[in-house]
Amino acid sequence: MIARKNTSFIGIMYFAGHHLIWLGLYMGLITVLYKVAGWTKLSIPWLPVSLIGTAVAFYLGFKSSQSYDRTWEARKIWGAIVNSSRSWGSLVNAYISNSNQTPAEIHAIKSRLIYRHIGWLYTLREQLLVPTPWEHVSLKGQFGKVNVQRREKFGVGLFTDYLTERQKRRYFADVEQLNGAVNKATQIIRIQAQDLAAQEENGNLAVLKHIEMQKILNCFYDEQGKAERIKRFPFPRQYANMSFIFTCIFIFLLPFGIVGEFAKLGGFSVWLTIPVGMLAGWIYIVMELVGDYSENPFEGLSTDIPMLSMCRTIEIDLLQMLGETEIPAPIQAKHDILL
Amino acid sequence: MIARKNTSFIGIMYFAGHHLIWLGLYMGLITVLYKVAGWTKLSIPWLPVSLIGTAVAFYLGFKSSQSYDRTWEARKIWGAIVNSSRSWGSLVNAYISNSNQTPAEIHAIKSRLIYRHIGWLYTLREQLLVPTPWEHVSLKGQFGKVNVQRREKFGVGLFTDYLTERQKRRYFADVEQLNGAVNKATQIIRIQAQDLAAQEENGNLAVLKHIEMQKILNCFYDEQGKAERIKRFPFPRQYANMSFIFTCIFIFLLPFGIVGEFAKLGGFSVWLTIPVGMLAGWIYIVMELVGDYSENPFEGLSTDIPMLSMCRTIEIDLLQMLGETEIPAPIQAKHDILL
Amino acid sequence: MIARKNTSFIGIMYFAGHHLIWLGLYMGLITVLYKVAGWTKLSIPWLPVSLIGTAVAFYLGFKSSQSYDRTWEARKIWGAIVNSSRSWGSLVNAYISNSNQTPAEIHAIKSRLIYRHIGWLYTLREQLLVPTPWEHVSLKGQFGKVNVQRREKFGVGLFTDYLTERQKRRYFADVEQLNGAVNKATQIIRIQAQDLAAQEENGNLAVLKHIEMQKILNCFYDEQGKAERIKRFPFPRQYANMSFIFTCIFIFLLPFGIVGEFAKLGGFSVWLTIPVGMLAGWIYIVMELVGDYSENPFEGLSTDIPMLSMCRTIEIDLLQMLGETEIPAPIQAKHDILL
Amino acid sequence: MIARKNTSFIGIMYFAGHHLIWLGLYMGLITVLYKVAGWTKLSIPWLPVSLIGTAVAFYLGFKSSQSYDRTWEARKIWGAIVNSSRSWGSLVNAYISNSNQTPAEIHAIKSRLIYRHIGWLYTLREQLLVPTPWEHVSLKGQFGKVNVQRREKFGVGLFTDYLTERQKRRYFADVEQLNGAVNKATQIIRIQAQDLAAQEENGNLAVLKHIEMQKILNCFYDEQGKAERIKRFPFPRQYANMSFIFTCIFIFLLPFGIVGEFAKLGGFSVWLTIPVGMLAGWIYIVMELVGDYSENPFEGLSTDIPMLSMCRTIEIDLLQMLGETEIPAPIQAKHDILL
Amino acid sequence: MIARKNTSFIGIMYFAGHHLIWLGLYMGLITVLYKVAGWTKLSIPWLPVSLIGTAVAFYLGFKSSQSYDRTWEARKIWGAIVNSSRSWGSLVNAYISNSNQTPAEIHAIKSRLIYRHIGWLYTLREQLLVPTPWEHVSLKGQFGKVNVQRREKFGVGLFTDYLTERQKRRYFADVEQLNGAVNKATQIIRIQAQDLAAQEENGNLAVLKHIEMQKILNCFYDEQGKAERIKRFPFPRQYANMSFIFTCIFIFLLPFGIVGEFAKLGGFSVWLTIPVGMLAGWIYIVMELVGDYSENPFEGLSTDIPMLSMCRTIEIDLLQMLGETEIPAPIQAKHDILL
C-alpha cells in the first residue's frame, strides 16, 4: 500500500518512466521514416485509429475496474479477519470460565487460544506471499528480475524481522503437529476446533458458547478461503492478455495515424508526433500497468494490501485484551510503503 | 455532508474557483504565444487530444464512481451502527432482568451498558477523525494549510462543544481502564463483553440471551473494523495519482489542440481559446476534485458523512429507551453543513 | 411509482416540456445574433464542445445510475419489510401459545402484536415523508411551489384518507406512550420488544422462540435505519451539483458550437440550429432531471416508491393471518400513479 | 429462457425484423425528399447527431444493464427457492421423528409438508404470471395483441397441462382454507407454520428443530417477496420511457445527419443512406427492445426465466427424497424455449 | 483456468488466429472491388460507421463484463464450497464424540461422513460438466467439432484418471442408493442429513451440534444450486446473440467506411485498408469471443474454473484432518492449463 497522497515525479518515473524510452524511439522511428526518409505512404487515416483507441479505452477501463475490485476485495477480506479476530479475543475472554479452575489455569487456556490465533495470522500471510506463475516476480528474464528486486527493495523485503524469537515461540507452539500439512493455516484452525472441544469436555466452555466460538472459527475458514481464491485464481488471463494485446495494437497504429495529421500543419510540426504520441501511448500503457499490478494484491510488492501491518494491529489488540503490557510497536510505513 | 439542494455560485467558487485562475493564465499564455508572438507552430491537431480527453474522462468516471462508493459505504457502515445500536438498546431493555434484584439495581445495569455504548460511539468518531498521511489536511505547504482552515471553518471545527461535562462523566465512566489502550474503541467493546459475562454469572441474563447480546457486540466490531478499513486504506494511490496525472497531461495538451481550431475561424476568435479552454479544463479538474474529496469520508471536511449527527441520533433514541426525559437536542446543520 | 408502460406525450410535456421553452429562446437568441445581427464571431469549433458533451454524458450516466440505485434500494428495503412482516405474522401465530390461557386471551395478544406492527408501518411511512432541505418541495420560489402542487396533485395528496377511525384506534392503541418520542417508529419496536419479554414472563412464549421473534424486531430496526439512511443522506451534493453545472456549461456552449456548422450548409439551414439545439439540450436536461427526481424516493411525488400500497399489502396479509374477514381494499393506482 | 446458442435469422426477424420496414420507409422518404424532390436543405451536420447518438448509447447501455440485472436477480431468487426447497425436504426427512408413532404416520406428515410445499411453488408461479399494466401483453391495440399471441405460441401457452389431476389433488389438499385469501402463497406458508407448531405440540418435532424449520419458511417468505418486488415494481418508467424517447429522437435525426454525407460522395451513393440508416437505427432499436423485454422476467414470454422447469426440478428432487418412484418427467424445451 | 501470465503468440493464434483469415479475405475483397474493379461507389462515409462502432463497443463491454461476472461468481461458489468443506471437516472432528463408543467406531463414523462428502464433490463436478445445448461443444458442424477437440486436448480430456479404484470405493460407498436419482448430488446430501440424524439418535451428536452440522449441509445445497444456476441458465441469449449480430454488422460496414479514407491518401495507401481493417475487426471479434467463452465456466474447456484442482485441494485438507498420511498429490497445470 502506498501511504502518501501524491507520488513524486521520481516515483512515477520509477514505476513507468522506462516505457517513455521505447515509446519515444518508436514514435521517432516512424516520424523519421515519414519525414526524413520520405515514406509518406506510412500514414493512415486517423479516424479508424481513434475508434480502436476508444474501444481499447473501454476495455482498459473494464480491466482497471476489475483489478481495483480484486485489491479492494482483498482488503475487505483482511478487514473481516481483523473484525472476527477481535470477536475471537472478546469471546475467549468472556466465554471461557470455570469456577473449579484457578485463574492462572484459565488464563493459560485463554492465552493459548489467542497465541495460536496470532500464529494462524502470520502463517496465512506467509502462505499468501508464495509466488504464483502469473505474478510479476515469476516473469522470465529481465521483467521478472526487476520485480524480484522491487520486492526486495520496496516490498516485503523491507519488513523481514517482524517477529522476535519470543513471539515465535509463543505463537507457533504446536508447530510440530503441522509437519507435513499441505495447508498449515487450515490445520491450525482444526487444532483450535479440537482445543475448543476439549475445553467443553473439561467444563470450561458451555456447549452453546462452544458452538458460537466454533462459528467464529468457520468465519476464519471463510476468510482464508476467500483470500486464497484471489491468490490462486488470477484475473482470467483471456481478459488480461487481450487487454495487453489491444493496447499493443493501438500503440502500434498510433504514430501512423497521427504523423500525417501533424505533417499537414507543415514544417517543424511533424516532429511533434513524437512527444504527443509518447504521451498518448504512455497513458494507455499506464492504464494497463496500473491494472496489471493491482490485480494481484498478494504479490509482495508496493501495491499489495498491508497484511503485515494488519497482522500486527490484531496482535496488539489481542494482547491488550489478555491484559499484557509488553506490546510490540505498530508497523510503520517505510519509504511511504506500508505492507 | 452538504445539506442543501443547490450549492450557491459562491460555494462553487470557494470550492474550485481558484482553479479558473491558473487555467486562465495558462490558456492565455498559449494563446498569446500563438497569436501575438506568432508561434503558430505551437498548434497540434485536435483529434489525438480528443482521444486522450475521452480516455481520461473514462478514468475520471471510474475514480468518481469508486470515490462515491467509499462515501456511500461509509454512510452504510454508520447506518448499520445506528441499527445495531437500537437493537442493543432494545435488547438491554428486554433481556436484562432478575426478580431477585430491585428495579433500581436493574436500571443501573441497563444504564451502564447503554452509557458505555454511547461512549464507544463518540470514541470511535474521534478515532476516525485523526488525520492520515494521504488526507487533504496532511498535504504540505499551502494546500494543507487551506484544508486545515476549511476543517476549522466548515468542518469539524464547527462542532466542538457537543458533549457537556455531565454527558462525558456518564459515557466515559471507565476511562481509566483504557489508559494505554492502542485502540480504545476495541477495548470498550471488550469491557462490554466482560460486563455481559458478569451479568450472566449474577443471574441477570440468561445464557441464550447473553449469546444474542454478544452477537450484537460482534456486529459493533464488524462495523468499527469496516469504518477503519475505509479510513486506513486509501483509494489505491496508483489509481488516484494516475488519474490526476492524466488530467494534467490532458489540460497541458488542451490549448495546443484548440488554439489552431479557433484561429481558423479568423480574427478575434482565437481569443475564445481562453474561455472555452478554461471551461473544458475546469470540468475535468472538478471531476477529479470531487472524486478526490469524496474518497476520504472521515476527513473532518464538509464532504464527510455526518458522524456527529448520527452519534447524537443514537444517543437520543437510547436515552429515550431508558425512559430519560432530559434529552440533548439533535445536531443541526451549520452553514448548510451537517457533520 | 408510475404504473403504466408508456408515458403519454402530455405526461412528458408536463414533466419536462417547459424546458423546451427556454432552450428554444436561448438557441433562437444565439442564432439571431449570428445570422441577423451578423455576429459570426460567436461561433466556436464543434470539436471541443463535443468532447465536453461526451464527458458530461459520462457524468450524467453516473448520476442516473446512482439515482436509480437509490430508488431500487429503497424498494428493496420496503420489500424486506414486507417479507419480515409476513414472517412476523407467521411467528406470532405459531409461537405464541399457552394451554393455561383461553384462546380468546391468546388471540388478543396476537392481535395486539400484529396491530402494533401495522401501526409501526404507517408511522414509519409518515416519518419518511417529512420533507428534507434538499428535496424538490423544499426548493425556494417557483420551483418549490410547483413541486408542492405536484405533491398534492400527483403525489401523496392523492391518498389522504387511507385509514378509517376504526383502523387508527386499533393500530395506534399505545399512542400516548409515544408522546415526546423523537423517533416514534423506533420506540414502537421497543414497546414490541417489551411486550415479547412480558409474554415470555407470562409463559406464553418459550425463551428460544422469544429470541427468534426479537431477531425479527431487530430486522425491522435494520430496515427502518436503511430507509432513514436514504431519506436523510442525500445523493452527495458535490456530485449532484456538479452534474447540474456541467450540463449548464454544455448547453451554454452548444449553440455556439453548432451554429457555425449549420451556417456552412448555407441559406435557411442556419435556423435548424434552433430545433436541433433544443433536442440535444433537452436530452441532456432530461437525463439530469430523471436522475434528480429518482435520487429521493421518499419525496411524496409520483417517482416515489409505493409505500402506501405496500403498507396496505402487509396489512391485508396480516389481518388474513389473524383470520379476520373484514379486510381493507388494496390501494389502486390513481392517474396511473401508485403510491 | 431461450435454450440455444444462436438464434436463427428467422428468429431474429420474428423478434425485431418488422422494425426494418418502417426504418426503411422513413430513411427512404428522407432520401427521396433530398435527392428526388431536391430538398437539400433537409440535411443537418453529422456531428451533433453523433453526439446525441453517443449519449443515447450510454443511456441504452444503462437500461440494458439494469434490465439484465432484473432478469438475473429473478433467476437468483428462483435459484434460492430451489436451494431452500432442497433444504426443506432434507430437514423434513431428518427432523420429523417420533418413536411413539408408526413409520406410516410419520411418513404421512412428511408427505403432507412436502406436498404442500410443492403446492406453494406452483401457486407462486401462477401468481407471478398474472399480467401487470406495464407488461407487453397489457399494451393497447396491435402491440398488445401480438404479445398475447406470442405468450400463447412461444410462451406460457406451450406448457398448459403440466399437472395431472392426481398431482393437483396431492399438492392442493388444503385449497378450501385459501378461499378468499388475497395472496394465496403467503397463506400457504402460514399453514405450514401452523402445521409445524402442531408437530411440535404432538412431540414429533423438537423445539430447536422447529425453530430451524420455521427459519426455512421465513426464507420462502423472503424469496416470494423478492420475486413480487420484481413483478410489481417495474423498471422505473421515468428511465424506461426516456430511453425510448431518446432513441426515437436519435432515429428521427439520423437520416438528416447522414444524407448529406452520402450525397457528398456523389451519384448513386446518396441511396446508401437507406441501408446504412436502417442498420444504424435498427441497432439502437434492438438494444432498446432487448432491454424492454428483459426487464420483466415474469411476463410469460420466451425471455422469461424458466419457472415451470424449476418447479418441476424441485418437485422431482423432493419426491425422490420421500422415496417415491413415480416421478414426473423434467420439463423439456419446446421450440428451443424453456419456461 | 489459464495458469500463466502472458499467452504466447501461438496461443493467441490458436484461440483466434483463424478469424484473421476471413477478415483478410473480406477486407481484401472490398478493396479489390474498389481499387481494381473501380467500384468506388462502394465507399460510405466513415462517421456513421464510427458511431456504430462506438455503440457496439459499449455493448461488447457490457457482455465482457457480465461474462466475467459469471466466471468470477462460479469461482466464488466453488471457493465457498472449499470453505464450507473445511468447516465440515472441522465440525465432524470436533462434534462427533461418544464416551460409550470406541475411538475406532467414532473414527469410522467420521471417515464415512468425510468420504461421502468427497464423493459429493466429485459427483457435483461431473454433473456440472454435462454439456448444455448452448455450450460450444454442442454447436453444430465444424464449430462444435473443434470445441470437442479442444475439450479433449486442452480441457477436461487432460485429466481423466484422477481417482484410483481405492479412492472411488471409499468415496462412493453408497452408490447403489443413488440408482435412479435424477440429481445424485442432491440425494447424497440427503443421505448425509439422515446419517447425522442417526448419529444424534445413537448419542454420538448433541442436538445443538446436529443442527449446526445440518446448517453446513444446507450451505452445500446453496452452493450446489448456485453452480447449477450458472450452468443451466445461460447468459440470456437475447443479449448474447445481439452482441454477436451487432459485431457482424459493424465488421460488414467497416471496409466500406475506411476504404474511401485510405484511397484519399493516394496510390498504394488504399491497400492498407486490408491490414488496418483486419486489426480493427479482429479486436471486436476477440472482445466478443472472450466474452463468449467466459460466459460458460463449466464447459470443460481451458477457460473453465479449476474444479478438479479444487476438489483435490479439499480432499487433501479433509484427509489430513482425519489424520491420514497417504495423501494424493495436488492437481498440476498441464500445458499451462489448470482444471
UniProtKB/TrEMBL annotation, chains A, B, C, D, E:
InterPro entries: YneE/VCCN1/2-like (IPR044669). It is found in: Cell membrane. Pfam families: Bestrophin_2. Coiled coil: none annotated. Keywords: Cell membrane, Ion transport, Membrane, Transmembrane, Transmembrane helix, Transport. It is a multi-pass membrane protein. Belongs to the anion channel-forming bestrophin (TC 1.A.46) family. This is Bestrophin family protein. It comes from Emticicia soli.
